[in-house]
Structures are given as structure tokens and as C-alpha cells.
Amino acid sequence: MRLRKIPNASELVGNHPNFVSEPEKYKGKWTRYFQNTNPLHIEIGSGKGRFITTLARQNKDINYIALERQVSVLAKLTGKIPDTELKNLAVVNADAELLPQFFSPGEISRIYLNFSDPWPKKRHAKRRLTNSRFLEIYKVLLKDDGIISFKTDNRDFFEYSIEQFELSGYSLINITYDLHKSPLADGNVTTEYEERFLKQGLPIYALTARKDILPPLY
Ligand SMILES: C[S@@+](CC[C@H](N)C(=O)[O-])C[C@H]1O[C@@H](n2cnc3c(N)ncnc32)[C@H](O)[C@@H]1O
Asked: Which of 56, 88, 112, 209 could bridge across to 43 with cysteines, CB 3.0–4.6 Å?
């Protein structure tokens, strides 16, 4: 996401009450941070935050973490949260590569990947957030019945992601090649990017992937 640099973005984000400056301190202890044992849902690459702030307002019994690596973008997200309003949302400024430093195995119930950068060049495939390298990391951090929800406007990226999810042993459910013309549109919360593509009349591709733990063979 390209955005004009906000000169005081680090300060704006750093001073916000929902910002967590040392997320590694809460590895395996997010229940302590949120002071409850509600399920933990994270969005990777939250952008300007329309999606996750809406969900956090709608579902007070779920704890949310917005992970975003660009601080200028995060400043837009924190700008959407009046101080002290959302106690069930934590904001983290970091790259997805660092997830294992922030979460213990089985700590996350759900991961959202919304309009992740498609990295179309083959030599950049490893950077895609649905590359099997990342899918293996998510698998460790998700609970046994954990799920990943993925939406994109890019058909090639979507088809690549389906292959990667299958290679990594996830079960795919609710696959749609036109989310907004499907029954799954009901209750769908849109992101900033999604709104832009919808205005252009473009289809949105979406799926849910479930981490499946097979029972032992004996
Ligand atoms: C195309 S934008 C989509 C933003 C938002 N999800 C939406 O749908 O409006 C992708 C966002 O993911 C962030 N991002 C990309 N790779 C990331 C990574 N490895 N770790 C954390 N954030 C990442 C980018 O900085 C950018 O803000």
C-alpha cells in the first residue's frame, strides 16, 4: 500500500492506547494482555483498519490483533479508534515474518488475510502471505480447529493460494469466485481495498481454510 508519509506517524501510533510496543512480551500470554480468555483473531496486513476495527466493535467477545508493517498506514488505523473505545483490539507494528516471536503454538483461533500483496513475479513468491512457508508458520500458531479467511481481487494469486493451502494440508471450505454475488456476502465486512474494487465492478475471490489435525492411525 502506497501512502504519503505521515511525518509524526511513529509518535501517533506509539502514543495510542491500543498500540503494543513489545508484542514478544505477550507470547503465550495474550489472555493476560486482554484480561480474558476470549478467542484470539488476527489480521495480517491490516492496512488502514476498516475491517478489523469494524469486527472489534461488532464482537466484543473476541480479541483482535491488527498486524501491519507500515507505520504510516497504522497511523490511519489508530486514527479510527478513539482512545479507550476498543479494549478488545491490540495494534502491532511488525512484519508477519516475526509471528512466531509473538505467539505460542495453538494460541490463535483465526487469521484474516485481506487483499495481501500478490507479489506477481515468480522470484518474489516467497513473500506472498499465502506461500507455504507462511502457511506452515500459521499452522503451528493456529488452534487445532483454527481457520484462515482469505480474500483477494487477483485471480492468479487466488489460484496460487488454493494450491499452497492444499499442499500444506489445509481443508478448503467456502470457496467463491465472486464473493459479493454469493450467499457468503451476508455478514461480510469490507476492507478499504475491497470497497475500491467493488466500485470498479470487479469480482472478489474468497475462501476459508481450516487447519485439519488428523487423528493418529493406530
Ligand atoms: C494491499 S494492502 C491491503 C490492506 C487491507 N487489508 C485492505 O484490504 O484494505 C496490504 C497491506 O499489507 C501490509 N503487509 C504486506 N506484507 C506484510 C507483512 N509481511 N507483514 C505485515 N504487513 C504486511 C502492507 O503494508 C499493506 O498495508
From this structure: 112
The active-site residue, picked from 83, 117, 178, 186, is 117
Residue 93, all three cell numbers = 507494528
Q: Is the CB of 127 inside a 6 Å radius of any atom of ligand 1?
A: no
Q: How does pLDDT run across 142-160, given as a tens digit for each residue? A: 999 999 999 999 999 999 9
How does pLDDT run across 104-129, given as a tens digit for each residue? Answer: 999 999 999 999 999 999 999 999 99
User: What class does CATH assign to 19-211?
Assistant: alpha beta
Cα(171) to ligand 1 centroid in Å equals 24
* Packing angle of the helix pair 155-167, 132-141 (nearest 10 deg): 60
pTM for this one? 0.95
Mutate to test the pocket of ligand 1, among 101, 115, 137 (most ligand atoms within 8 A of CB): 115
